[in-house]
Sequence to fold (293 residues):
Amino acid sequence: MKIGIPRSFHYYYFKDLWITFFENLNIDIVISPETNKEIMDLGLKYGTDEMCLSLKNYIGHIAYLKDKCDYILIPRIDNYGIDNQTCTNFLAIYDIVNNLFDIKILNYNINLNNNEKEIDGFISIGAILGINKKTVIKAYMSAKNEEIRVKKLKIEKNKEKLKSEKMKVLLIGHPYNIYDKLIGRQIINMLKKYDIEIIYSELFDDNDEYKKYATGLYWKYNKENMKGLKYVEQIDGIIFLSSFPCGPDSLTNELIMRKINKPYLNLIIDDISFSGGIETRVESFIDIVKINN
Fold:
């Protein structure tokens, strides 16, 4: 048996948990490759104009995997409580994919408002795969500990960068955009070319910094993206990265930009086929940051 995992959206939040979980159960996994033109073209083929670039990207990864595994793992994640809602795409993805492709989906729900917890979801996965509950819980707890360990190391490394003597830029965006090869990696590579220390805003300990900018904010992942603002006085500039037309980002980023007193650049990626204009904007932003310092 092979479980397919799309290298998009959820992958950048749960990869350590998922990979360790299935390894503990001795189940083979197939992870789609980093986003390339073939995958993005598949996303554009099956997607619609109303979808954000990130969702089209995800659908492209599904299309790549559909003939290469027995199940594709697609969770349905609604919320982590009444004030921790996810983007509607995280709730709708299961149904979108189910209607687009003839594939077997391995699904679990997270909806704390309905008392549907993560561990219950993994137990349901075990039931689908015919694995006894005790074995599944043991595999899940081990995987959860690994996820926590890896994230702690990433946070420590990210915090250490604040001590750097280099120019420091805070990068604010969803991990599935920032770390995707075609969407955000180009920005990271541009900044590294100029020897800039990149601080990833979501890689900090939990805090309520978002309340300074948007008291009533209830999107879980946008709150996480704002954690780095707690250290805004230690950085030199901010880059906002989002995919068009992301509603939660357009509102949240606007609220931040109105209140910060740092040079910033707002990048909204819609077309990944041309990066020349983006590079020009990044270069201009770096010049502004240098002047400001």
